[in-house]
Amino acid sequence: MSDDDRPRVAVFRPDDERLTEAVETLDALGVDALADPMLEIRPTGAVPEGAGWIVFTSKTGVELADEAGWSPADAGGDERDGAATEERDGPAIACIGPSTADAVREAGWPVDLIPNEYSSTGLVAAFDALGVDGVRIEVARSDHGSQVLLDGLRDAGATVHETVLYELVRPEGSGDSAEAAARGDLAGACFTSSLTVEHFLDAADERGVRDGALAGLDDAVVGCIGHPTRETAESHGVAVDVVPAEASFEALAESVVAELDG
């Protein structure tokens, strides 16, 4: 237990406003957040290339493109079949989910597509329904993006190019949550991507507590955003208790705390 006797739940978001908001969310739900960032963002300096569609899969990618001075008008748009509802310069823009779309709008750019399912699979299904045979699609994201998106778009007939806007690495000094789990001092864990799972276990290895951390997670409520994250966790021997229907941190936190209360 934490010092105030509330259940302690680990959160692994990058050390920026996302971590602050995650801690605030858990606090409002009545648990003590153990903030242990497992992702550090390292921009590559690249910007999206020209295409009929630009696909953004994270708020971070949008913000980095905007900060670099990029705009959709710089990225062509001659092959925008089935895209926007109004004529304009530049490509159409697809976003993997609402938070990414909000970032696009804040940058002053229009949003043309958000899939019903906020995932790579959902994006593929949405594009397949539009019909993108022969359309050039630019996927702008991190170096750890799912191959499902690229393969699915190519199978739908699109010409696909990927630009890596940023790399995701494990921050130096991460791993307090692994030690807490090994001590039996962790009631829950909120994994937001496959990489957070892998980095958690890497940190546990580095600190010599991998077996204990896995045992601690087995006694805790483990939540994952999305089934790919769940599959990664289970492939490493982590039992997953909850995967919320909505792919957002708020839904994940609520699901984990509900399971704790149950």
Short overview:
The chain is of the alpha/beta class and 262 residues long. It has 10 helices and 9 strands. The protein has helices at 17-28, 59-67, 98-106, 120-130, 147-155, 176-183, 194-206, 210-219, 227-235, 249-261, and strands at 8-11, 32-35, 40-43, 53-56, 92-95, 136-142, 159-169, 188-191, 221-224.
Any overview of this molecule?
By secondary structure, the chain is α/β, with parallel strands linked by helices. The chain contains ten helices and nine strands. The chain has helices spanning 17-28, 59-67, 98-106, 120-130, 147-155, 176-183, 194-206, 210-219, 227-235, 249-261, and strands at residues 8-11, 32-35, 40-43, 53-56, 92-95, 136-142, 159-169, 188-191, 221-224. Strands 3-7-6-4-5 form a five-stranded mixed β-sheet. A four-stranded parallel β-sheet has the order 2-1-8-9, sandwiched between helices. Helix 7 (194-206) packs across helix 8. The radius of gyration is 19 Å and the shape is elongated. The relative contact order is 0.16.
List the helices and strands and how they pair.
Blueprint (H helix, E strand, L loop, with lengths): L7 E4 L5 H12 L3 E4 L4 E4 L9 E4 L2 H9 L24 E4 L2 H9 L13 H11 L5 E7 L4 H9 L3 E11 L6 H8 L4 E4 L2 H13 L3 H10 L1 E4 L2 H9 L13 H13 L1
Parallel strand pairs: 1-2, 1-8, 4-5, 4-6, 6-7, 8-9
Antiparallel strand pairs: 3-7
Estimate percent helicity.
25-40%
- How many β strands by DSSP? 9
- State the strand order across the main sheet: 3-7-6-4-5
| Element-level helix/strand string | EHEEEHEHHEHEHEHHEHH
How would the global form be characterised?
Answer: elongated
Number of helices: 10
Structural class by secondary-structure content: alpha/beta
Amino-to-carboxy terminus distance: 17 Å
Low-pLDDT ranges: 79-86
Share of β-strand residues: 15-25%
Largest sheet: 5 strands, mixed
By oligomeric state, this entry counts as single chain
Report mean pLDDT, rounded to a whole number.
92
